[in-house]
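User: Structure please.
Assistant: Input sequence and predicted structure:
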Amino acid sequence: VQLVESGGGSVQAGGSLRLSCSGSASSVCMGWFRQAPGKERERVAHINDDGTIAYADAVQGRFTISEDNVENTLYLHMTNLKPEDTAVYYCAARRRVGQYCSGGPRPPTNFFIYWGQGTQVTVS
Protein backbone atom coordinates (compact mmCIF):
# COMPACT_ATOMS: atom_id res chain seq x y z
CA VAL A 1 0.00 0.00 0.00
CA GLN A 2 1.49 3.30 -1.07
CA LEU A 3 -0.28 6.46 -0.04
CA VAL A 4 0.22 9.87 -1.63
CA GLU A 5 -1.49 13.00 -0.32
CA SER A 6 -2.23 16.13 -2.29
CA GLY A 7 -4.33 19.25 -1.99
CA GLY A 8 -2.63 21.08 0.83
CA GLY A 9 -1.88 24.78 0.69
CA SER A 10 -2.37 28.13 2.33
CA VAL A 11 -5.82 29.52 3.05
CA GLN A 12 -7.33 32.29 5.10
CA ALA A 13 -9.31 31.55 8.21
CA GLY A 14 -12.84 30.57 7.32
CA GLY A 15 -11.79 29.07 4.03
CA SER A 16 -11.94 25.52 2.75
CA LEU A 17 -9.59 22.91 1.33
CA ARG A 18 -9.97 19.37 0.11
CA LEU A 19 -7.16 16.91 0.65
CA SER A 20 -6.81 13.77 -1.42
CA CYS A 21 -4.95 10.56 -0.75
CA SER A 22 -4.44 8.07 -3.54
CA GLY A 23 -3.59 4.45 -2.92
CA SER A 24 -6.35 3.26 -0.64
CA ALA A 25 -7.38 -0.36 -1.10
CA SER A 26 -10.04 -2.81 0.01
CA SER A 27 -7.47 -4.56 2.18
CA VAL A 28 -7.07 -1.56 4.47
CA CYS A 29 -9.12 0.91 6.50
CA MET A 30 -8.24 4.57 6.17
CA GLY A 31 -7.81 7.64 8.31
CA TRP A 32 -6.39 11.16 8.41
CA PHE A 33 -3.92 12.47 10.97
CA ARG A 34 -2.16 15.78 11.43
CA GLN A 35 0.89 17.10 13.21
CA ALA A 36 1.41 20.74 14.10
CA PRO A 37 4.87 22.12 14.86
CA GLY A 38 6.00 21.13 18.32
CA LYS A 39 2.98 18.92 18.89
CA GLU A 40 2.31 15.22 18.74
CA ARG A 41 0.56 13.65 15.79
CA GLU A 42 -3.18 13.53 16.35
CA ARG A 43 -5.96 11.67 14.62
CA VAL A 44 -8.38 13.80 12.64
CA ALA A 45 -10.82 11.18 11.41
CA HIS A 46 -11.00 7.51 10.51
CA ILE A 47 -13.39 5.10 8.85
CA ASN A 48 -14.50 1.90 10.57
CA ASP A 49 -15.41 -1.44 9.02
CA ASP A 50 -19.14 -0.82 9.44
CA GLY A 51 -18.83 2.49 7.61
CA THR A 52 -19.08 4.61 10.70
CA ILE A 53 -16.72 7.54 10.96
CA ALA A 54 -15.02 8.95 14.01
CA TYR A 55 -13.90 12.58 14.11
CA ALA A 56 -11.71 14.42 16.56
CA ASP A 57 -13.70 16.86 18.65
CA ALA A 58 -11.66 19.74 17.26
CA VAL A 59 -12.87 19.11 13.70
CA GLN A 60 -16.34 17.67 14.27
CA GLY A 61 -18.84 19.51 12.12
CA ARG A 62 -16.16 21.19 9.99
CA PHE A 63 -14.28 18.30 8.37
CA THR A 64 -15.68 15.42 6.33
CA ILE A 65 -13.80 12.25 5.46
CA SER A 66 -14.92 10.20 2.50
CA GLU A 67 -13.60 7.42 0.31
CA ASP A 68 -14.03 6.65 -3.37
CA ASN A 69 -13.59 2.90 -3.62
CA VAL A 70 -13.58 2.97 -7.41
CA GLU A 71 -10.80 5.54 -7.62
CA ASN A 72 -9.06 4.15 -4.50
CA THR A 73 -8.87 7.66 -3.12
CA LEU A 74 -9.50 9.04 0.33
CA TYR A 75 -10.62 12.63 0.82
CA LEU A 76 -10.74 15.13 3.64
CA HIS A 77 -12.98 18.09 2.99
CA MET A 78 -12.13 20.86 5.42
CA THR A 79 -14.37 23.89 5.92
CA ASN A 80 -14.35 26.89 8.26
CA LEU A 81 -10.63 26.43 8.70
CA LYS A 82 -8.96 27.97 11.73
CA PRO A 83 -5.33 28.92 12.36
CA GLU A 84 -5.11 26.04 14.82
CA ASP A 85 -5.77 23.65 11.93
CA THR A 86 -2.31 24.51 10.57
CA ALA A 87 -0.36 21.26 10.39
CA VAL A 88 1.07 18.61 8.13
CA TYR A 89 -1.78 16.27 7.25
CA TYR A 90 -1.16 12.57 6.69
CA CYS A 91 -3.37 9.83 5.40
CA ALA A 92 -2.80 6.45 6.95
CA ALA A 93 -4.11 2.92 6.70
CA ARG A 94 -4.58 -0.07 9.01
CA ARG A 95 -5.04 -3.63 7.88
CA ARG A 96 -8.45 -5.10 7.25
CA VAL A 97 -8.74 -8.66 8.57
CA GLY A 98 -11.66 -10.27 6.84
CA GLN A 99 -14.49 -7.78 7.16
CA TYR A 100 -13.00 -6.08 10.22
CA CYS A 101 -10.55 -3.22 10.55
CA SER A 102 -7.67 -4.08 12.86
CA GLY A 103 -7.77 -2.30 16.17
CA GLY A 104 -11.53 -2.00 16.31
CA PRO A 105 -13.62 1.20 16.22
CA ARG A 106 -11.16 3.15 18.40
CA PRO A 107 -7.81 1.91 17.15
CA PRO A 108 -4.54 2.96 18.74
CA THR A 109 -2.41 4.95 16.35
CA ASN A 110 0.12 2.15 16.02
CA PHE A 111 -2.47 0.06 14.18
CA PHE A 112 -2.03 2.48 11.27
CA ILE A 113 0.99 0.98 9.60
CA TYR A 114 0.91 2.62 6.16
CA TRP A 115 1.54 6.36 5.92
CA GLY A 116 1.75 8.98 3.22
CA GLN A 117 4.45 11.63 3.09
CA GLY A 118 2.15 14.39 4.33
CA THR A 119 0.83 17.61 2.89
CA GLN A 120 1.12 21.03 4.53
CA VAL A 121 -1.99 23.02 5.40
CA THR A 122 -1.46 26.59 6.59
CA VAL A 123 -4.34 28.73 7.83
CA SER A 124 -3.73 32.41 8.52
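The chain is about 0% helix and 50% strand.
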